[in-house]
Design a protein that fits this description.
Blueprint lengths: L1 E8 L14 H6 L12 E6 L2 E5 L5 H7 L7 E3 L5 H4 L6 H4 L6 E6 H10 L1 H4 L11 E6 L6 E4 L2 E10 L2 E8 L2 E4 L18 E5 L12 H11 L3 E5 L7 H7 L4 E3 L5 E5 L7
Parallel strand pairs: 3-4, 4-5, 5-6, 10-11, 11-12, 12-13
Antiparallel strand pairs: 1-2, 1-14, 2-3, 7-8, 8-9, 9-10
The structure holds zinc ion (3 copies).
The site of one zinc ion has 7 residues, from helix 3.
Amino acid sequence: MQGTLTFLGSGTSMGVPTLGCRCAVCANAHLAGSPNRRTRPSILIAYNNKHVLIDTGQDFHAQAVREDLQSVDAVLYTHGHADHILGMDDLRPLSFKNSDGLPLFADEATADIIERVFEYTFRKVDRYPTSARVTLHRISTNPGTFVPLFGVDFLRVPVTHGRNTIAGYRFGPAAYLTDTSDIPDSSLPLLQGLDLLILDALRREPHPSHLHLEKSIELVNKLAPKRALFTHISHDLDHLSTNASLPANMQLAHDGLKLEFDITYEVKA
Ligand SMILES: [Zn+2]
Ligand SMILES: [Zn+2]
Ligand SMILES: [Zn+2]
């Protein structure tokens, strides 16, 4: 089964240009069409006439307009930080098309944050009438947890994000690991045989809750996917010059980047 993956956003939580910054990358990001212009991180996976999102950040509305996204069938959340959940409310008009409620999948900690932030949406009584018609499904953090969606299993891959352990997802020969400072040994077997690894690479200097470029490259070499794309990128990394310096199988992603691949994937029991 063919799938198309679209980078809705490839930027870090502050976005690029970063407010209040006049560095060369931010200046370039102001130019229309600049690959340095990076909105908050999220991907769209389309297959089987279905559209699955991983995360909905603050830029979700603009991203959906840019990609002419007409429907969403499920959302998988990685964790509860603002750059990953705050676009949830923009699912409203798309959620009305789904009579059973658009399904959202999140672990307990993330689901609690979503419920608290969007309290008016999940209220049992006196619910705001035009709230998003969504159903929040709590998924286990146990190793091997997966979410079957429209013929593809989305395997939860625990990754370290500073002091937290959050969700990455594997689907077919691809994996999406945003907001990663390290990959626990127990997750390494879940990431074997990848054609495509999408991995956090925030900047050049080390950071307490994100991978920096050198460590991202190290992890790609260790996991040996056919190809790796870096995301959650700050204004520290200029798109063209950084890409020119990277090994041939690794590149920085950019907003709007699309990849096609065979997404067929069933988790083996
Ligand atoms: Zn983030
Ligand atoms: Zn800057
Ligand atoms: Zn985060």
